[in-house]
Please model this.
Amino acid sequence: MNLPIASLNGLATGLFLLSAFGSLATRQIQGCVRFFRLQSFALAASIFLLAMGTHVSDLVVVAVVDLALKPLLIPWLLKRYVRGELFRHREIEQLLNIPSSLLIGLFLTLTAYLSAPLLPLPSAAMGQINLPIGLAGLLVGVYTLAVRVEALPQLIGLFGVENAALLIGVAVAPNLPVVADMAFAFDMVVIAVVIGILTRITHERVGSTEIGAMRALKEVGIE
Amino acid sequence: MSLLLLLLVLPLAASATAYFPLGRRLPPAVTLIACVGELGLSVAAATMISSSVRIVAVPNWLELDGFSALVLVLVALVSTTGALFSWGYMAREADDGHLRRYYVNYNFFVWSMLAVPMLVEPALVWTAAELTTILGVYLVAFDNTHESVEAAWKYSILTIMGGAVALLGFIVLHSATRYGEAPFTWTGLVALAPHVPAKILRTAFLLILFGFGAKVGLVPLHTWLPDTHSQAPSPVCALLSGVKTTVVLYVILRMIPVLEASGAIDPSRWTVPVGLVSVGVAAFLILQVSDYKRLFAYSTVEHMGIILTAAGLGSTAACYGAVFQILTHALTKSFCFFAAGMTLLAVETRSIASVRGLLQTAPATAIALLVGAIAIAGAPPLVVFLSEFSVLRAAVFGKHYVAVALLALFIAVAFFGMLYHVSRMVFGDAGTTESPQCVARPPLSCVLTVILSAAPVILLGFYLPAPLDTLLKMAAQSLSR
Model:
């Protein structure tokens, strides 16, 4: 019984990592959001499989909440608060070109795989794969955050980091109180609303959402 | 209803009331009344704690001890003075809807900061600490200028990323509950710690230190802090610098007794170097600032470093110094930002070089700014001097001579940097600068706030009331073990 669950979890976490690379490689904002949706589906699937494998019924609730909020509510909120023209924006800029970014992503994934066994984290047998993949997702998410200059792809990078933390979390601490899981989910929704509104204000005020191009604040030294 | 639950309901009720368009004066009035109520409730709670009465609203979820009671009172106090200052300061805002949204968000922000010390379940503490960041974003971007929006972005992206890293730390921390029956609370973790492999606690602590270090503004993750604390409206700066950073640092400090209880980990290996580097970098950055609000913001990085260093030294005396510094920082830094806000109203520029002879053009504001700078720099007999002295004394008694020497050097550098910049603004000839100094009479509520905030900064330097001393000792006790 455990073998199919572990294999299916391997598939779900594989999709999770693939979608992290997807949001690194795509040139469209809508593409970034689609990959975030895919990643959140994969996360919900992994949580659900771990719920079946570890017999922790609370995790089913977590999976359902994850499914309702991340692939559905959060993209809807972003579309509601951010202007349509920003969503349709193509050829978004990033600091390094995409092949270089993918190579760096690959290097980060290898680092995660090599360093995961060094971490003293006990995890459920069928969730052992969650740790290296979660770590890889976390590093790729942080890299996405750093390399993107547009507001929404940065936000998707940020959500990638939070998703990765949860992917590790459900394997390492499946017994986390369901109230805490709900609070994490609530937190992500608030982030989506606040950053969505901030993106709109930035677009209105600055004329673009190129965060990387904002250089008004810096130390200029003693005058 | 329990005292703690009431404390959580009050800001939410104020926020809901401020939302409705029932007149321009209603949102500031409701906010101020709610904040005064929160201050009364938190002082009542702290008094009960200092009389050794346990406060448990929901067992293992919502409780209070000496350390959390101290932080709670400070949040409530600075929120109250911030609300009073906001009344006059924000009156310049012409758009009623924008003003209402300010107060709605102000109360939400206060709510999240009050929740952090009251919660004892670390996963919920993480959520509340994360909310302090997110609910502050709108307030930072309130002025709606290019600079304030940029500051809000830097603030949100870096600190939310830090929050995600800290989340991983809390998840690792939760795996400690596999090694015993104690609940997942701060005290439960102290009881569990001797049975948990040291590697788990060490990994969790480092992730939390790195992740929440970004929210506190510890070097090298401090870059957002001067931008944010200089661009936000001054009452918000007082909250951000005076208590918001402290509230998140409180969460990091809560981990120290857990590590010490394990017996196999020495937290000072990380806290002292990180703290000292923050103090040192901030002290030298203070020398080269050109914006007086950034000056006070860098001083926050310096103070966070001092508190972390002191708490890491481990002795009860050093922990007393750390909690005393938390108190004096909150009181003095909020006062400094109120004085900076009055200065901004008077001269309409943040540039140090553009302001000369403030004593001639706006004497009351100049005196407030000068007293703030002298106080926050740590000059005797004001209250920051006492707390910094108690940290240095504890470090000497603990034979941490390198830490003492570096701390003393960095504090001295920051002292001279602070006074150099502020004295240039306050003294000199008002006619020597190109920018016009359009002096406006400061609003009454701002003047009142400055007087009220200055009182403890000066008086506590001469006399520390016994109940407050007891609370500080209890806070130090909860921190040292």
Summary: Chain A is about 75% helix and 0% strand. Residues 206 and 215 of chain A are 11 Å apart (CA to CA).
